[in-house]
Specification:
By secondary structure, the protein is mostly helical. It has helices spanning 24-33, 45-57, 62-77, 82-92, 96-110, 115-120, 128-140, 143-200, 206-240, 243-255, 259-280, 285-295, 299-313, 318-322, 330-342, 345-400, and strands at 2-8, 14-20, 37-43. A hairpin with a 5-residue loop joins β1 and β2 (14-20). The longest helix has 58 residues, at 143-200. Mean pLDDT is 82; it is low at 46-57.
Length: 401
Amino acid sequence: MLYKYEVTNLNGERQTGSIDAPNLEIAISSLQRRNLIIISINPAEKTQFFSKSIEFFEKVRTKDIVLLSRQLSTLFEAKVPVLDSFKLLASEAESPILRRKLTQIVEDIQGGISMPQAMAKHPDVFSKFYISMVKSGEESGMLQEIFLDLSNHLERSYELTSKARNALIYPAFVVIVFIVVIILMTVFVIPKLNAIITEAGQKVPVFTQIIIGLSNFIINFGPVLMIGLLIGAFFLWRYTKTKNGKIALSRFLLSVPYVGGLSKKLYLARISDNLKILLSSGISMIRSLEITQEVVGNEIYSKILQDVTDAVKGGSSLSEALSKYEDVPLLVSRMIKIGEESGKLNFMLETLAKFYKREVDSAVENIVSLIEPLMIIVLGVMVGLLLISILGPIYNLSSAI
């Protein structure tokens, strides 16, 4: 719960602020440990609710987390204390929500909890993968190296995901615009054309009859159809939030031609990179698999990693456990097996991550290069047919006159 307080320090200076604590006693104890004299302290439930409502619509960008990680690495390299580092970054953060998060982390660290625990209270900003890495760095005294690795990893992951997503934005935009144009024409243009042809008593071509029929259907049943689509979309969205729905959606994404292959390479690159980073940071194989399972982003691969974790707990090697699944290419299990036998597993995982990143980059470039001419051809044919269906009867009508 969030508490608003007014205190004085040992010099008699008044200060106001807020502190997040499980209950009032812990909040008071935390302030007293800072040698502060409490004047008043009260729950701030309304403020907290308002703050959470704002944060629901705000998100901390991956770019901000990458920059934050690099800055922390630099500050720790300069031997700046943890608390001072977070105070400095909180004062300089451009994102309002990130500034609030960092301020809360500063207050929690001042209250006596560790840095990983303070960061773990903000799962919308710092993933379990991130927190585990920070814990490992704190325990090993390698926070500088850990934050540098985290910034590099997040940057690679962001770049990889952005390329895959951006490759689909252009065709989606073009298709949506085309659908909107078709609907506008069928609602406003086709009915007027139909009235002219009907009055003239001209013979209507078959394709024009189809367009007119589609226009009449949209005009008469369009609102009902739209409501039905919205209801269907809502229930589909609800279904994708269930366990079975998540699995079905993940399987569908992996089975779509070409896009499925791109998605597989994206997830395999993420799995390899995550495991390499975690293992090289001294985290155990079991824990690394459990963390990767939670952050991979696909239910199919998450279930595979869950089964692999159980197999490894039972004494199986990582390569042997992975080789049983058709969604994991033979190349992956063989490379990991070579890494296990040679004692260079981290190197092999890094090699796999780089290989699949290059594969994703190549696939995205191919999509971008092919999609524009393909869309031009498809849309050209569709627009041509639409124009023929409209202009054909008009031309026949003018010829008859």
